[in-house]
Amino acid sequence: QAFFCLLLCIPWGSSCPPSCQCTERAGAKAVLCSSQHLEEIPKDIPKDAVFLKLDANSITRIPSNAFRHLSHLEELDLSRNAIEKIDRAAFKGVAAGLRTLDLSSNRIRSIPKEALLALNAKLRLANNPWHCECALQEVLWEARLDPDSVQDITCHTAPREEYVGKPLLQVLDAGVNFCSVRQRTTDVAMFITMFGWFAMVIVYVICYVRHNREDTCKHVEYLKSLPSTQGHAE
């Protein structure tokens, strides 16, 4: 009876994933899942976790609402994984309290700015094969990046070959604006669209005028073919 009573007294939220170790750090729960060959984020992480280490695994994606139930989470380490995709709502539910987010040393080429800009956490994004574009530039400008790792955010690919291999911050300091390039592309597309609509209107007007002219000519010819009133009088 004492055994079953003990089981009933243990809160379900305090269970620990089989591949992880749950400990207390300064009175706060730490969940340590480092180097456990994990391919996805464990589903049964305790709700009262404050520190979560998932580094050095084989995680490839952070799905939407992956940490939504971890309202107490302050530090999240996802470094040294194989992360390629991060969903827009990946960190929904933890944005307010998260203080540190480490995504360094993954395979991230691009990231939806919506996934990071809502966070107040200090971000580590170094050592990823980044594609330098407007979204990454906006993250660099608006997010709270760890100053010690900013120089290691390097352009793995870019719209122009001369930017490849250079730190993104260095490229931006040189006056490059990836967002203006996208804006020019958008402007050209809008101009082409508007020109297309204008051309269609012109063609329609020309066809309409020609059609009316033909109808007028036919009507005039018809009137000419009718016997004149003078002829009937004679």
Q: What multimeric state do the chains show?
A: single chain
Biggest beta sheet summary: 6 strands, mixed
Which strand order do you get reading across the main beta sheet? Answer: 1-2-3-5-7-8
- Cα shape: elongated
Structural class by secondary-structure content: alpha/beta
What is the string of SSEs from the N terminus onward?
A: HEEEEEEEHEEHEHHH
Task: Provide a count of the helices.
Answer: 6
Cα gyration radius (Å) = 33 Å
Compute the separation of the termini in Å.
131 Å
Arithmetic mean of pLDDT:
83
> Count the strands?
10
Question: What is the helix fraction of residues, given as a range?
Answer: 25-40%
- Poorly predicted runs of 5 or more residues: 1-13, 182-189
Q: How much of the sequence is in beta strands? A: 5-15%
Q: If you had to describe this structure to a student in words, what would you say it looks like?
A:
Strands 1-2-3-5-7-8 form a six-stranded mixed β-sheet, with no helix packed on it. Strands 4-6 form a two-stranded parallel ribbon. Strands 9-10 form a two-stranded parallel ribbon. The radius of gyration is 33 Å and the shape is elongated. The chain has six helices and ten strands. α3 packs across α5. Helix content is 35%, strand content 14%. It starts with a helix and ends with a helix. The model is unreliable at 1-13 and 182-189 (pLDDT under 50). It has 234 residues and is an alpha/beta fold. The chain crosses the membrane at residues 188-209.
